[in-house]
Amino acid sequence: xxxxxxxxxxxxxxxxxxxxxxxxxxxxxxxxxxxxxxxxxxxxxxxxxxxxxxxxxxxxxxxxxxxxxxxxxxxxxxxxxxxxxxxxxxxxxxxxxxxxxxxxxxxxxxxxxxxxxxxxxxxxxxxxxxxxxxxxxxxxxxxxxxxxxxxxxxxxxxxxxxxxxxxxxxxxxxxxxxxxxxxxxxxxxxxxxxxxxxxxxxxxxxxxxxxxxxxxxxxxxxxx
Length: 224
Ligand code: ATP
Ligand code: MG
What we know:
binds adenosine-5'-triphosphate, about 220 residues, about 40% helix, Rossmann fold, binds magnesium ion
């Protein structure tokens, strides 16, 4: 029997027992994000990983961020070759600020109680997230996976987390991923200065950046 629309979506979600979700500005997405998500997928036996480009993050100024459609399309291009990866528009389509706690709650409602949700984050962002509003609700709805990231010590992070929450080792876990000292900030600066960004991110994303003149000094600052 062929199922379409909402019913088909429900059946597909029912098969997902272990769901990874990875939020980020993805401005642009790069191999640091991808290797982190893939390591989490394989190490934690995740059924899939959903990338969620952020809408209006409360912790970053909107004018610093590229229009949502560019960040969404770059993320789609980057994950196109991995059949376990998907991209969600949920934060982009939701008006107002985007809070991780609300996003995770939405996934919890959509997938139901039978799915374990793993929120994948780098060691730097993990500390930030755990000081945001609604951390108790967040930890009730998902496990947090704090991935190693060059320049950020997991041990330090663990110690600082210990004083923040008592759930390290229960709801919060650390994950060693191959170290890639790549950041979107560095990529944007390289483009601005005319330096190469080859091998830092998928070629399709590199071409997209060129085609749309992103991160150049005269880059457009339109919304949407
Ligand atoms: P920016 O420099 O603009 O902050 P970024 O490279 O940190 O960009 P984000 O979109 O802010 O990318 O990050 C999304 C998530 O990916 C965060 O949880 C972040 O910690 C994680 N992350 C980003 N780069 C890496 C990396 N090289 N290794 C491991 N995790 C990473
Ligand atoms: Mg960042």
